[in-house]
Design the sequence.
């Protein structure tokens, strides 16, 4: 085998060139449009002032503060018109969409937001749905929502739930339950 290595290298190069040649042949491309063929873009009425870093950070802080105080939540406003069944259907569908379940997905927070809204409306039904999930990964990702949305008046039940599901609340992930029991 050692004596045949020059043939192997030569053969690999020949095969690589053949594959490259067959894949690099020109394919028919759709006709391109020129810049003159495109419709002109309407100019803005007045130019907007450029944002500074401080403007951006202030806006983000204001939006976060409003969200935490429950004053402004466009997602919650949208869901206000939905029924519990629609929220559950959207939640089920979101768990099958890569954009919703992958951490870098465009809608990565959607399942958690949907579950939080459903728990706010019908805690027992949402908890039963969560407990019936087959996917351990989905349960682990949504477990923080369960702790965060657990009703304070049922704090002792929450602590029992956390103990029964220790695999979901490792490494301090169950602090919401502990906080509600203090």
Sequence:
């Amino acid at each position: 085998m050692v004596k045949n290595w020059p043939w192997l290298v030569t053969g690999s190069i020949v095969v690589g060139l053949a594959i490259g040649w067959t894949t690099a042949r020109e394919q028919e491309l759709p006709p391109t449009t020129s810049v003159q063929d495109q419709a002109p873009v309407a100019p803005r009425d007045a130019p907007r002032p450029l944002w500074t870093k401080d403007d951006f950070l202030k806006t983000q802080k204001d939006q976060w503060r409003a969200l935490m105080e429950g004053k402004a939540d466009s997602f919650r406003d949208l869901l206000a018109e939905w029924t519990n069944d629609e929220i559950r259907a959207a939640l089920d569908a979101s768990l099958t969409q890569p954009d919703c379940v992958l951490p870098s997905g465009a809608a990565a927070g959607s399942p958690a937001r949907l579950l939080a809204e459903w728990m706010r409306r019908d805690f027992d039904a949402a908890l039963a749905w969560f407990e019936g999930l087959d996917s351990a990964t989905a349960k682990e990702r949504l477990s923080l929502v369960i702790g965060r949305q657990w009703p304070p008046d049922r704090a002792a039940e929450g602590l029992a739930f956390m103990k029964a599901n220790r695999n979901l609340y490792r490494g301090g992930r169950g602090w919401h339950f502990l906080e509600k029991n203090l």
